[in-house]
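Researcher: I'm preparing a figure for a lab meeting and need a structural model of a single chain. I don't have an experimental structure, so a prediction will have to do for now. The sequence is pasted below. Please return the structure as tokens so I can convert it later.
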Amino acid sequence: MRADARKNREHLLAVAGTTIREQGIDVSLRDIARRADVGLATLLRHFPTREALLDALLHTSFDELTAKASTLETSGSPDDALVSWLRDCVTWTTEYRGAVVLMAAAIEDTGSALHASCVTLRAAGARLLTRAQSAGMARNDIDGTDLFALVEALAWLGDQRSLAPRTDHLFDVVASAILTRPS
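Model: Understood. Here is the structure written out token by token.
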């Protein structure tokens, strides 16, 4: 990719990230293009669909959360590692209002641009859960799919203005329900 094209792409991603954090994932692509001072055709040339834009925007964060899970697998206690990763996932998903809806759909849709990233992220959390379960520190009646659903549920709570102030408290309730010893 040419340097100017890469610069334009990075600018579009930066503007899209800010706009989506402010207005949610349903923001108009035309509004993103306008805020980036480009035409809609330019935005669509780089990102032909909303999902392609979101995949490019979210991919780095998914990679970071996946890498953090890998690091946590070998450091710290299994229960602390699981809770730390879970908290980071929930915090991240609430930054991009409404993204959790796309994540939930992408897990089931193998044709989705977000599918592979979401599956990889879910697998990373599942490994941390399995590690905590093997150490006797987490319930054995849940799996990675359940854990990802809990991330989605907590992120959804954060998207609800009236419930957002309760998110930290409810996170602690959910984390203590997952663990077999106090967190």
